[in-house]
Amino acid sequence: MSLALGRAGVTLGFIAALWGVLSMLMGIFTHNRRYLRVGLWCAGGVLVSAVLAVGAMEWALLTDDFTVSYVAEHSSSETPFPFDVATLWAALEGSILLWVLILSGFIALTARRFRHRIDDPLVGWAMVTMFVVATFFFFLVIGPAAPFGSFNPPLGYDGPGPNPLLQEHILMAFHPPMLYLGYVGFVVPFAFAIGALVTGRLGEGWLLETRRWTLVAWAFLTAGIILGAWWAYEVLGWGGYWGWDPVENASLLPWLTGTAYLHSVIVQERRGMLRVWNLSLLCATFALTILGTFITRSGVLESVHAFTTSSIGPALLGFFALIVVVSVGLIGWRGDLLRSTGSVETPLSREGSFLVNNVLFAALAFTILLGTVFPLVVEAFTGDRISVGSPFFNRMSAPIGLALLVLMAVAPVLPWRRASGELLAHRLVWPAAVGTASLVLAVVLGARGIAPLVGFALGGFALGTALRQLVLSVRRQGPAGLVGRSSGGMVVHIGVVFIAVALSASQAYVQQTELRLIEGQTATFAGHTFTYVGTNVVLEPNREVSQVLVEVDGAGPYAPGVSRFDFGSQQVGTPSVRVTPTVDIALSVLALPEVPGEPTTIRVTVQPLIVWLWIGGGVMVFGTLLAMIGGGRRRRTETPAVEAGPSLESASASRTDG
Amino acid sequence: MSATSRPSASRVALWLPWAVMAAIVVVTLAVGSVGSSEPPTNADRVLVLTRSIRCPQCAGQSVAESDVSVSREIRRDIAQRVEQGQTDDEIRAYYASDTVYGPDALLAPPTEGVGGLVWLLPVAALALAAVGLGLAFRRWSASGRRDATEDDRALVAEALRADESSSAEGENRSDREH
User: Fold this and answer.
1) How far apart are CA A447 and CA A402, in angstroms?
2) Looking at chain A, which residue has its C-alpha nearest residue B166?
3) Is the pTM of this model over 0.95?
4) Contact B109 A483 (CB under 8 A)
5) ipTM of the complex model
6) Do A450 and B58 touch (CB under 8 A)?
């Protein structure tokens, strides 16, 4: 039943997406609104099909319907709620299905939002672009990554369940969908960019149309990345949160180009400049999400996050190539229209600082992409095997990160066009005082070492600037001064400062050791005492957790453990973390006592300020929400009318019968 | 914004806090970096070393991150070597030797040979971008001066004044001012 419904869903979705491409193209070329309206219906059809397919899959997962191959391979009758729901994204085929659902959602939302302007060719081409993307992804779930294969379960068959690492923490229920919402969300601005290029309407209209869509995608991507780091920290048990793993890098790359775009687009809105650059950034962002999926899902690079590999590599690589070729081709073709007359005379101006920001973000993205694929390239050309890991990424990204902090401290107070030294000295004096004070405070509290201290000082400086801008805005406009793009952006900056300071501190002052303790014994490490007080066994339907009870500084006990899953002999560590605002103490079990009374080995990681990584992520998302409220109202009402030109009458006519 | 018209007393008032803060920052950084010159503890060295050596069996993790038994062995071995007084370079060289795990045991790519490119290219790209941006600023600056007439400037100034009158300092424009 689920199998049939699911297959029907993906097949209908494929047909609806393809039909959408064709009818939109027909409509655009024949100027026949009937075809365009069919295109709108196709958007609905795509969504309904995707909901049908995902619903069928979830039903199969919940009812342990092992006739569906994906369920047989990745679920088990003992997988507890909500992990059985989350099994949808525990492996490749289901992940692509989730991708399809989110993509369909965005297509339907776009179609609904722009239904009255469907005969605007810009909107039309944007819909064509999205339908093409949808066709490709529906093709993936029909062919190379089909979750709805049929399986004939022998009597009493039970599946292995999802990868144990994915059953360890509730964050797994949120992190992948967030990340996918971010990845896929960039399809909307990308589609409008393509639409603008095809129609030649390269003014600022399409930017304003997609401003909020971009912010939504960016907020989800940010949340997804932070939740991924949190998940790694809570589950993997090595005391780290970011390993510069290919999957992590792949999620960071579109975030970097997307962030660069969010900044440089302001220059285009304000001054009409950087058109080519902004289009390129958007196309790069979307292309990088596809490339990231290729890198992480095709098995060319191994990663702890890539739970399966499959044969979709060539298809994804081909689609990536198509995006790049179409984007570059269109931008080249429209080159003459993209030239702008404006100029930026000095880096010491708002627009100049945005350019510097973009250079830094692009350099960081380039470095990370290079480091991620470099081992492959070297091996392909010379046969040498080399590794590029966290020592490389940390060393290369730290200076760029510090430079970005400087920019965050200075750029927000810069006026457009040109600034004088006096003006800066006047506007930056309080932010600099905050920076100086944070430095002094850090040293007084005992922080040592040039690198983290510079991080704290610059963090304080940037924080001071963000606060100054917020205070000024509130003074001008009252509480309403807290919403809107500028203030929302400053709140995001505050979140970034939290994360930057937490990164500096945790990287510089992390301490780790392995303690071998017999029951009742106490050890001291990094100024904390650890007492092994006993063991405990927790039986759950799908696993058996052997816990070691440890008191930290007399509090607790904390119970890091080792989970044994029924299926196979897989053992997975279950760390336990004592969280405080100033310092985290993470415990994980390395060796359980074989028999009672024998010693146990635990790993202790003491890291300061970790919790501020997650708080900073929350502040960033909150700031993005503030930026979405209000803003862009002024030109939004005008531009479509000015830009839409000839189709204006039909657009207003369609409003009556739409 | 014109600097020359300000009386010099206000110039002092403007820059004095900066001089004071610069002095404080220099002194504090000096204090903060002197204190850090004590040698790292053995535990610190083990952590840095284990994070820079690849787990031979797993997917791109360091031995510090991985929980498979070979990683535990390597961690134990590194701790022992540190205790015995081997230097970081000696320990890394041992693991990177062809008889043990080979050069790709090191997560930091080599600085020589083809591997060096991965260090060089980002720096080169950033330098190139900086030079390009600098040239662009100069060209824009030059063409800006040549093209704009006095009438243009008056127009722009007027437009800017009108545009910025709605925000207090003519900075930090929000989009909501209309």
Assistant:
1) 18
2) A476
3) no
4) no
5) 0.83
6) no
